[in-house]
């Protein structure tokens, strides 16, 4: 836990800043606490006014272990020792996680079970925040370095581990790690790209009932192209990406437009969702419009190409 | 007989001729001459008009691949070649300084061809630049706000060239579906 004393110009601004620190810390709820007592806080954040600067300087002289940041008028944070570098969210998160060293002896549980783990990974992967340990029944299985987008397998081979993660998704948990803890646990083990592993895990898992239920009334939109290491040589995966980046579609619309089995579409969406590439939208009440005339040419060329590639592979 | 045009663009030495040759399994017409611009790219020969290859499609139609010359003095050819093209592959040489600026410049050329043109960006020579900023380039690769596929490719490897074409065809298909169904 890190205790933060915020001294701003208004309560709303102080609360907004505290919320920003909580998000940047990538720590579970309750791990960044507001403090009202200068002698019971790890970090003092002040608004940049001459009076507050002078006061903070005096306070720090009396409390050498106290960290101090200054928030300028534009909302940017800097170290209180006069450093000019703006602290971005990554630096803020690292600093806050560092401040709780020694105050917590037991691991901090970030998420328990498929739903909470999915939610957490979707939040943290795009913002590249934090390190974590994935385990089951007290047994560590996988280290996740979200900042570096890397994974370290604590069980080999990868295929067996992925299968175990997929089957046991509901019983998995995620604990927060400090960078040094991750390094110590990883040792000399090889670091692997994280998202291809998550992708395979999500595709193999059958613990997606809650998401599938939501998909009945939702369209899916892709936010960006997945890393091509994730997609491999999956031509239907390319087709789904291309379509869902341009148009939000329901599972049935994807299946109909691309002539794919609905189950294959769902498998793709599960993986894209876990990796944070996909988001759900309320499906429009209006059904898909019928095809307009004279627009099928490029579709034809793509079909011809697939036929050609299919016969190439069969040859 | 209908023909479908795909244009391969990119700077000198980015691997356009090699890619066209790979995809067409060597059956190409090229216009390579001795390279007089060794500062632009340190290679023995370069394309002065264009590379061209035909691929027969199952229904008798034909896919035509055009590789543009990479030297800046031939840039007037790019819009001419892009007229009527169904798709384009943009090759970026990861070894060159200012890849991001080069990407921006090509996207500027391609913007007028808009949604009618499917586009894929491929980064070559990545094996020689292990710390390449692939994620940053991927983030930048957008046309009218729409993210473009950006992938690493070894232009010498036919399978990788064909995979690039798979992605391009997916883009063409999606363009067509969105145009047809809204």
TrEMBL record, chain B:
Domain of life: Bacteria
Annotated InterPro entries: Gliding_Motility_GTPase, P-loop_NTPase
Species of the source: Stenotrophomonas indicatrix
SUPFAM superfamilies with a match to the protein in the record: P-loop containing nucleoside triphosphate hydrolases
Pfam family, any one: Roc
Protein name, as recorded: ATP/GTP-binding protein
């Amino acid at each position: 836990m890190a205790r933060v004393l915020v001294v701003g110009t208004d309560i709303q601004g102080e609360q907004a800043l505290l919320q920003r620190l909580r998000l940047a810390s990538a720590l579970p709820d309750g791990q960044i606490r507001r403090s009202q007592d200068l002698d019971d806080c790890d970090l003092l954040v002040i608004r940049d006014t001459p009076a507050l600067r002078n006061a903070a300087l005096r306070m720090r002289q009396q409390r050498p272990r106290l960290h101090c940041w200054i928030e300028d008028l534009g909302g940017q944070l800097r170290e209180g020792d006069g450093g000019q570098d703006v602290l971005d969210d990554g630096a803020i998160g690292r600093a806050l996680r560092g401040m709780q060293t020694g105050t917590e002896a037991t691991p901090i549980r970030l998420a328990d079970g498929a739903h909470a783990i999915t939610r957490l990974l979707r939040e943290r992967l795009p913002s590249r925040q934090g390190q974590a340990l994935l385990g089951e029944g007290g047994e560590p299985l996988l280290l996740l370095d979200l900042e570096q987008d890397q994974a370290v397998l604590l069980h080999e081979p990868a295929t067996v581990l992925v299968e175990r993660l997929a089957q046991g998704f509901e019983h998995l948990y995620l604990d927060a790690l400090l960078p040094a803890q991750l390094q110590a646990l990883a040792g000399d083990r090889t670091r692997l790209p994280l998202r291809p592993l998550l992708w395979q895990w999500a595709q193999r898992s059958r613990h997606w009932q809650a998401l599938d239920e939501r998909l009945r009334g939702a369209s899916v939109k892709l936010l960006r192209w997945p890393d091509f290491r994730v997609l491999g040589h999956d031509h239907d995966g390319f087709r789904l990406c291309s379509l869902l980046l341009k148009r939000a579609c329901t599972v049935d619309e994807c299946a109909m437009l691309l002539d794919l089995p609905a189950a294959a579409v769902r498998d793709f969406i599960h993986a894209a969702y876990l990796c944070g590439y996909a988001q759900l939208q309320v499906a429009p009440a209006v059904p898909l419009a019928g095809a307009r005339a004279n627009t099928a040419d490029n579709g034809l060329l793509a079909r011809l190409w697939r036929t050609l590639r299919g016969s190439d592979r069969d040859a | 007989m209908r023909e479908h045009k795909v244009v391969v663009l990119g700077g000198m030495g980015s691997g356009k001729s090699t890619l066209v040759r790979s995809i067409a399994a060597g059956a190409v017409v090229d216009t390579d001459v001795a390279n007089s611009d060794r500062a632009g790219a340190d290679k023995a020969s370069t394309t002065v008009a264009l590379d061209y290859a035909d691929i027969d499609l199952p229904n008798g139609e034909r896919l035509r691949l055009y590789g543009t010359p990479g030297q800046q003095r031939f840039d007037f050819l790019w819009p001419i070649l892009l007229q009527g093209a169904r798709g384009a592959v943009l090759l970026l040489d990861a070894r060159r300084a200012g890849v991001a600026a080069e990407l921006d410049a090509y996207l500027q050329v391609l913007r007028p061809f808009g949604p009618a043109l499917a586009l894929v960006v491929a980064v070559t020579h990545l094996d020689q630049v292990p710390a390449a900023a692939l994620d940053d380039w991927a983030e930048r690769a957008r046309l009218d706000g729409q993210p473009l596929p950006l992938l690493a490719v070894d232009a010498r490897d036919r399978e990788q060239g064909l995979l690039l074409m798979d992605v391009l065809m997916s883009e063409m298909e999606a363009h067509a579906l969105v145009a047809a169904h809204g």
